[in-house]
Design brief:
The complex is a heterodimer of chains A (about 280) and B (about 110).
Chain A (H helix, E strand, L loop, with lengths): L2 H5 L1 E5 L7 H13 L2 E9 L2 E6 L6 E6 L16 H9 L3 E6 L2 E6 L11 H33 L4 H8 L1 H33 L13 H31 L18 H4 L19
Antiparallel strand pairs in A: 1-3, 2-3, 4-6, 5-6
Chain B lengths: L10 H12 L2 E2 H11 L8 H14 L2 E7 L2 E6 L1 H33 L1
Antiparallel strand pairs in B: 1-3, 2-3
Helix pairs in contact in B: 1-2, 1-4, 2-3
Classes of the chains: A alpha+beta (about 280), B alpha+beta (about 110).
Amino acid sequence: MSDAEERKRAYRLAPCPAYDIEGTESWLEDMAEKGLVLSGDGFFAGVACFWKTEPRQLRYRLEAAPEGTGLWSGNGGLPAEEAVEINEAYGWKYVANRGQFHIYCTDDPSAREMHTDPDVQALALNIANKRARANMITALIYFMIFPLIHLRGGVLLTAVHMGSGLMLGGLLLVLIALGRTVARVLHLRRLRKRLSAGEAPHRKNWRRRALYHRLSRPIFIGLTIIWLGFFFQGWSNENLGGNIMPLEEFTGQIPFATLADMVPAGERAGVILFNPWIFQG
Amino acid sequence: MPRKALSGLTESMFYVLMALCRQPMCGIEVADFVDTKTQGEVRIGPATLYTILGKFEREKYIEVIEVSGRRRTYSITAAGLGAYAREIRRLQRCLDDAASEESQLGRESRE
């Protein structure tokens, strides 16, 4: 990419989560009015990539993806070609993905709304909601139930090995992640109910919770990276013997009973020490 | 868990089935048919249209009979015809009820 093209790009942290459809639509429209138009690179880790242009009046719409939006999903996470064609016929151009949604955009003020039947939109959203629920159950299994089964009840022993502080920190991060997933499921469910009641919400004041979202996300990611760093340090120490010290090098009070504690000093000479050669004859 | 079947048709769903009752069509032709038929009274948005087409395909109300590039042509099935006929009967009952109520009101006002 040339320097000229690079200069035209701008990156902004999204002020709302991916599942906040109205918030994302409103924010992208406000950005377009400031001369920032979402590029095809879309979002990565909550950061949106824009092209710098003249201020424009654009409409953005998020459409719940019928299939997953990951690269490993069917069609590489892109919308179905038929959907793209039908939308283009009515003035809506596919731009990028965010979370479980495809983002479309139009500069035509007369282009008809992508969804004209809130009941049908609720059906589409239902698919995204089911996927969010499935993700929540998977996360629960992988982050809470699977480790508990894997540890075979030895949570306390693991805490001793890893350090109870690290364990508690990990548990806290898992709970925060699960809480965010629950919030996503509840948000989508509320939106589906509003659509079923005939509402067609597209505008929202995204500024209200922007600071909270912009701070909480990097903090969560930062804490997770720090925790992983400590975890892998502890893990490598455990595996490479970093936590093991020869007894003769230890100068402090030994926290367990030794032979010297059990046998009086004068009787040590009579103790038969274990000798593996005895059993070989 | 079994997939929840459609409990009823919305107005746009009804018109999509009506279009496909006439002849097999692709998505854009369906939307054009509805625009013309209703003289613009019912306008189906593109996302609404392909959500309906996807749902009907899963419900086996319609099936794809031809794929040409990005364009898929759909044909209505026996299950789709049944759903369409049921909806017509339901709407007809509504109209009959409204007509009988109107004639009742007319008689009362004359008396």
